[in-house]
Design goal:
The chain contains 12 helices and 10 strands. The chain has 326 residues and is an alpha/beta fold.
Length: 326
C-alpha cells in the first residue's frame, strides 16, 4: 500500500473551535420570547416534549457528554451546574457541582433555578420522575454513536438558539473523521492490527459492538477482537484473549491500580504475568493508555481520540511530529 501521511487534528483545534463559539454571542436571535407559542419545542430520547418560551440562560448538565457539547457550542456562560464527573475540571471551574451522573441532587438543582436541565439516558428513573414532579425543564439525550452525536449537537443547538454553531461543529467533526477514514478504509484485513480494549482487569471487561470505542477502533484501522460479542460492554476471559491474541491493547487509565500512572507501568506488570506475557501486544510492547472520555464518551472530543488511536495502530500514517503521548 502506498504510504500516506495524515496530520492529526490536534486538541488545540477543538479548543479553538470552543473559543470561536464563545466569541460569537451565542448566535441567539434578538426575539427570544413569544407569548402565543413556545419558541423551542423538542422531543427527547424518552419521548417527552419540552417547550420553552425563551432560549435558556441557566443550564444544568448532569452528564459529561452534554456538558462537553454545551461548552463547544459556546454556552459556558449559561452553565450554572454540572456533574462532578467531568474530565476537564478547569473548563468548568467555578461552576457548582450538582452531584453524580446517576443520582444528581434535586435540591441543589432546584436552588440553581435552571431553565433547562440536560440529562442522559441512564439517569435514575426515580430522580427523573421527581425532577418532572418539581416542573423542572428536563431534557434527556441518549448519545451512543456518531450519528447520535451529530443529532444531539444539532438538538442542543436548537435548545440554546445556537443552530449555526451546531451545524458548523457537526460539519467540522464529519470532515475530521472522514480524513482518518479515507486513509484507513483501503486497509485490508491483515493490515488491520487485532485490538483489545482493557476497560477492567478483574473481572476482565472489554468493548464490543454498539459503543463508541468499537466504532473508533474500526475507523482508526484496527480490528476489535471482541467484534463478535453480543453486548456493548461484554465480560471477557483470558482464555479467549489468548486465542484472539491482540496485537495492540488500549487500556483505560482509570482502571490502573495505585502506583501505576503510565503505559510502561502497566506493560511491566503484564509482562510479569504468566498469562498476559504470552499475548503479542504485551510481548511487542504495544500497550497504550487512552483516556476513556476521548474514545468512550460520544462528544466532539472523539476526533482527538480517533487520531490518538490512529497513531497507536498505524504510526506510519501519521506525521511523526504530531505523535501523542500518554
Amino acid at each position: 500500500m502506498k504510504r500516506t501521511r495524515l496530520t492529526r487534528l490536534v486538541p488545540a483545534a477543538l479548543a479553538a473551535l470552543m473559543l470561536a463559539g464563545a466569541s460569537c454571542g451565542q448566535g441567539r436571535p434578538g426575539d427570544t420570547t413569544r407569548e402565543d407559542d413556545a419558541l423551542v419545542e423538542e422531543t427527547d430520547a424518552l419521548g417527552h416534549t419540552l417547550r420553552l418560551a425563551a432560549y435558556p440562560e441557566r443550564v444544568v448538565s448532569t452528564a459529561p457528554s452534554n456538558t462537553e457539547i454545551v461548552l463547544q457550542l459556546g454556552g459556558r456562560d449559561r452553565l450554572v451546574g454540572v456533574t462532578r464527573f467531568y474530565g476537564y475540571p478547569d473548563l468548568v471551574k467555578g461552576i457548582p457541582r450538582v452531584g453524580g451522573y446517576y443520582d444528581p441532587s434535586i435540591e441543589t438543582i432546584l436552588a440553581l433555578k435552571p431553565d433547562l436541565v440536560l440529562v442522559a439516558r441512564g439517569i435514575s428513573q426515580e430522580i427523573l420522575t421527581r425532577m418532572r414532579a418539581f416542573d423542572l425543564p428536563v431534557f434527556c439525550l441518549d448519545t451512543q454513536n456518531l450519528d447520535d452525536l451529530y443529532r444531539d449537537i444539532a438538538t442542543i443547538g436548537r435548545l440554546l438558539g445556537t443552530q449555526e454553531e451546531a451545524a458548523a461543529l457537526v460539519e467540522k467533526l464529519k470532515a475530521a473523521i472522514e480524513r482518518v477514514a479515507a486513509v484507513t478504509r483501503p486497509l485490508a484485513g491483515p493490515q488491520r492490527p487485532r485490538v483489545f480494549w482493557l476497560g477492567q482487569e478483574t473481572p476482565l471487561q472489554t468493548a464490543g459492538p454498539g459503543n463508541m470505542i468499537h466504532t473508533l477502533f474500526e475507523l482508526a484501522g484496527g480490528a476489535n477482537v471482541a467484534a463478535d460479542a453480543t453486548q456493548p460492554w461484554p465480560p471477557y476471559s483470558l482464555e479467549t484473549l489468548l486465542v484472539k491474541d491482540p496485537q495492540v491493547i488500549i487500556a483505560d487509565p482509570q482502571m490502573l491500580p495505585k502506583g501505576e500512572t503510565a503505559s510502561n507501568d502497566l506493560l511491566r506488570r503484564l509482562r510479569a504475568d504468566p498469562i498476559w506475557s504470552k499475548i503479542s501486544a504485551v510481548k511487542n510492547g504495544r500497550v497504550y493508555l487512552v483516556r476513556t472520555d476521548l474514545i468512550g464518551q460520544p462528544t466532539p472530543r472523539v476526533v482527538e481520540g480517533l487520531n490518538v488511536l490512529l497513531q497507536h495502530f498505524h504510526p506510519e500514517l501519521v506525521d511523526h511530529d504530531d505523535a501523542p503521548g500518554d
